[in-house]
Amino acid sequence: MKKYVIIALIILVAGSMIIYPMLKNDPEIETEMAALFTFEENLAAVDGEVVPITIQVNEELTKLELYYNDSLLKTWKNVSSDVQFDLEAGAFGVGTRYIVLMATHNDGTESEDQRLVRVLSDIVPEHLFAESVQEYPHLTSSFTQGLEFHKGQLYEGTGDPSNIGATLLAEVNLITGEHKEGRKMGLDAGIFGEGITILNDKIYQLTYKNGKCYTYSLDPIVITGEFRYSGEGWGLCNDGKQLIMSNGSEELTFRDPESFTTLRTLQVYDNKGPISNLNELEYIDGKIYANVWMSDMVVVIDPNTGKVLQEIDARALAVKGKGNGDVLNGIAFDKSTGKLYMTGKYWSKVFEVRFVENMPLL
Ligand SMILES: [Ca+2]
Q1: Cα–Cα distance, 17 to 14 (Å, whole number)
Q2: Ligand 1: centre distance to CA 283 (Å)
Q3: To which CATH superfamily is domain 32-120 assigned?
Q4: CATH for 126-356, options being 3.90.76.10, 1.10.3090.10, 3.40.30.10, 2.120.10.30
Q5: Cα(280) to centroid of ligand 1, in Å?
Q6: 197, 233 in Cβ contact below 8 A?
Q7: How far is ligand 1, taken at its centre, from the CA of residue 290, in Å?
Q8: pLDDT digits over 101-117, tens only?
Q9: Residue 10 predicted with pLDDT over 70
Q10: pLDDT tens-digit readout, 236-263
Q11: C-alpha R_g of the chain
């Protein structure tokens, strides 16, 4: 019997340790706060919109400060009743922002309230379709993760989902679809290749979860170095000066090609919300083209604002070229001809494409 009493006591003590902190976080108890926002978490606003907000003040405060995206917007002194503020939601562009209240009480102590604000794009993307102009063969063994032209030659980087050492970097013969002999390099199983790009005669190849970006010389194609980064590597392209990298979220990271350090980040949004799963990338005429993983969509992004300008529906290509393959992935622009190409992972075809206003015949 004594044993059961001890067990019951243990359950009681352990249970109270779990329940007490839950009670402490009960939102109803927070209404005691000296100052708080009257709107709920996850406020959605549109870039350019002015959002009137009300700050509820429950006691006399010596100081009340309002921060947005870590910048001080306004300070009120000796405030004892509710205050209004017109928030310029898009002051820091589209994306996820935080708005923070810092209240200083009469006894010198401070309390804080915080809300998340999502700033959506004010642009409704133009909707276009990708249509095949010309078909070329593609190796169905290639799990395409990077596709790019350099001086009129096509390069491809592949991944290794079966962990069999299928990661490759190769120059591709566009006409035959074959990897050119003596112009390819494979990596061991355990290294999962991702996006590639070529800048200053150096090839960069990301890895999925290995945290490494390999660099290769162009001729011969051999590894010359590596950079480390945190998080996942997905797509890669460059604007002629900086590397632009995706990581599976809605965020793009601009990096220094010499040091790989982060120069800036960009959140990609359309008029409805963030566009996550950004995958293979291509920089064409001042815009970033991005495959959206698990979809037949490509989004065209303004690299200065992160706003989606166009959405390109490429489902007609999937019908013709996917076969038993995986998702659409791979965009490459040949500057020497002005032609644009698209393919997918394990697809049987690479397509030269053009964008049209109406759905192509399937
Ligand atoms: Ca590309």
Answers
A1: 5
A2: 8
A3: Immunoglobulins (2.60.40.10)
A4: 2.120.10.30
A5: 6
A6: no
A7: 8
A8: 999 999 999 999 999 99
A9: no
A10: 999 999 999 999 999 999 999 999 999 9
A11: 26
